[in-house]
Specification:
The complex is a heterodimer.
Chain A (H helix, E strand, L loop, with lengths): L3 H32 L3 H25 L6 H20 L1 H11 L3 H32 L5 H30 L2 H25 L2
Helix pairs in contact in A: 1-2, 1-4, 1-5, 1-6, 1-7, 2-5, 3-5, 3-7, 4-5, 5-6
Chain B lengths: L1 H17 L1 E7 L4 E6 L3 E7 L5 E7 L9 H5 L12 E5 L5 H9 L4 E6 L2 H10 L8 E5 L2 H10 L4 E6 L14 H9 L1 E11 L5 H13 L3 E4 L6 E5 L7 H15 L13 E2 L18 H6 L1
Parallel strand pairs in B: 5-6, 5-8, 6-7, 8-9
Antiparallel strand pairs in B: 1-2, 2-3, 3-4, 9-11, 10-11, 10-12
Helix pairs in contact in B: 5-6, 6-7
Classes of the chains: A mainly alpha, B alpha/beta.
Chain lengths: 200, 293
């Protein structure tokens, strides 16, 4: 089970798990100035993340049936990085617009978190099923492989949640953390693509 | 010795018996308890470790404002003695809007309170009521203030009292929020904010207020650990003028136990905080973490 591709895939799945939850937690921070920090704001964020992830799973699983490889896998990370950038640069503009049009902060926060996070999170969701496909190509115990993958990526999510809420917000600005995520995603994507090329 | 202990025990039980819970409920945001002892009724936001009294009223003398910090809030009147439009952020037991509506029966008073249950409890147990001039908006204060700004509403007196002590709404402590508050202050408007005087948060908060409003009165009194920030965002009035206003107001405020003529000498302009502390912004606002440090 320990071969370079598997290690890389596990490593990247961990990273995407970490980043998904880190973005989700920061989402609360980003929406609070416009919609408050009440329970329904969290409800909006969590719903949007769940919907985005579920769509991503579906699409990622579908794509894994056509020429699976590290190159498209790396592209998911790069795309996620690119689609996260507008949330940083145009987040306030988008939330201003939503705030003006929707009075009810419940629907306001739902629409705003959809606008900001749907695309990057859906793309991050594509990574999990696609990872299973890449791993299964190199091992035969598919259920066990999927188990280890969930273990690794969910552990990443737990750490992303913990580190972000305990320490990162104390040390950095929200946008600094998000930009770092963009950078990490881009590096992850490039390294997957490069490994894909080298190992071909 | 035994008799002494017995008396002590009796005294203890009678005292605990004297205090009883008359209302208890779990709201969306907190556990709300109303406790009553012989002559006091208190609104408590219950937490496991040390309950916090939000508001107490004296049953013998309902006019009397029990908490020193609530009395200190009236220092805002020294900068703006005739507020026609008032905004109170955070209702609690409703002491501030109730007293202000008696002092200024013709003024419009708006209250932004996030927790509907608090509004209900204030009405039922603390004789708070809405009227032609007093209205409550069940809304997050940040959302309320932003919308008020869009509608070009302004207020002559804004009282920010949204911090319960257990948990700080971090989005109500940032520079951006204070700028939004400033934008709904009328030309003669004044902001009074009940804030924190201990922990590292004191420095961060002071710097944040300074960055938005410039000079402010730092109002502390020996009897309480609260600190009240008072500012008009412009030139602060001379001490002499404030003392004159205080002397005039003193008689009207006496029955509420607000000794306003004693306030001006405690309202300091000196900066006794670390001016290098990082201001709190929407991007950086770990207020709850800073307070625990």
């Amino acid at each position: 089970m320990i071969n370079p591709i598997n290690s890389l895939v596990f490593c990247l799945a961990f990273t995407s798990g970490f980043i998904i939850m880190s973005i989700e937690l920061l989402g609360g921070r980003i929406l609070a100035p416009y919609f408050g920090s009440s329970i329904y704001v969290w409800g909006s964020i969590i719903s949007v993340f769940m919907i985005s992830l579920s769509m991503g799973y579906l699409l990622g699983g579908k794509l894994s049936t056509r020429n699976p490889g590290l190159l498209p896998y790396g592209c998911f990370f790069l795309l996620a990085a690119i689609t996260l950038v507008p949330a940083i640069i145009y987040g306030d503009t988008a939330m201003d617009a939503v705030f003006l049009r929707i009075e009810d902060p419940r629907y306001g926060s739902l629409v705003a978190s959809g606008l900001l996070f749907f695309l990057p999170v859906a793309i991050l969701g594509m990574i999990a099923p696609y990872s299973v496909r890449l791993l299964v190509e190199n091992a035969h115990h598919s259920g066990q492989v999927a188990g280890v993958l969930y273990f690794v990526s969910t552990l990443g999510s737990a750490l992303g949640t913990l580190l972000t809420s305990f320490y990162l917000v104390l040390l950095f600005e929200v946008n600094q953390i998000l930009l770092t995520m963009v950078l990490v995603l881009a590096i992850s994507g490039l390294s997957a693509a490069i490994c894909g090329k080298l190992l071909k | 010795m035994r008799i002494f202990l017995l008396i002590l025990a009796i005294a203890w039980t009678s005292q605990t018996k004297a205090e009883q819970v008359i209302h208890k409920e779990k709201s969306l945001y907190r556990n709300i308890v109303v406790r009553e002892s012989r002559n006091r009724r208190c609104l408590v936001f219950a937490v496991k470790r040390g309950d916090r009294n939000q508001t107490c009223i004296s049953l013998n003398d309902p006019n009397r404002i029990v908490f020193p910090y609530a009395r200190m809030t009236f220092a805002g009147l020294l900068l703006q003695p005739t507020p026609a439009r008032i905004l109170v952020i955070g209702l609690g037991g409703g002491t501030m809007p109730t007293v202000l509506s008696r002092l200024y029966p013709k003024s419009t008073i708006h209250v932004a309170e996030i927790d509907e249950a608090v509004v209900r409890v204030a009405k039922k147990y603390f004789s708070f009521s809405e009227s032609e001039h007093v209205s409550v908006f069940v809304q997050d204060a940040r959302v309320y203030v932003k919308r008020a700004g869009l509608k070009k509403m302004t207020y002559d007196l804004i009282i920010l009292d949204a911090f319960t002590g257990d948990y700080i709404p971090e989005h109500l402590m940032t520079k951006e929020f204070l700028q939004e508050v400033k934008s709904i202050m009328s030309e003669q408007g004044v902001l009074v904010a009940n804030t924190f005087s201990t922990s590292r948060l004191y420095d961060h908060e002071s710097v944040t207020y300074g960055s938005v409003f410039g000079a402010f009165f730092n109002f502390k009194m020996p009897i309480t650990s609260n600190r009240v920030i008072i500012t008009n965002g412009r030139q602060l009035p001379e001490s002499k003028l404030m003392q004159e206003r205080a002397n005039k107001l003193a008689r009207r405020l006496k029955k509420y136990a607000v000794k306003i003529d004693d306030f001006p000498r405690h309202m300091k302009r000196t900066k006794d905080w670390n001016e290098k502390a990082r201001p709190l912004t929407d991007q950086f606002s770990p207020a709850n973490l800073l307070r625990d440090d």
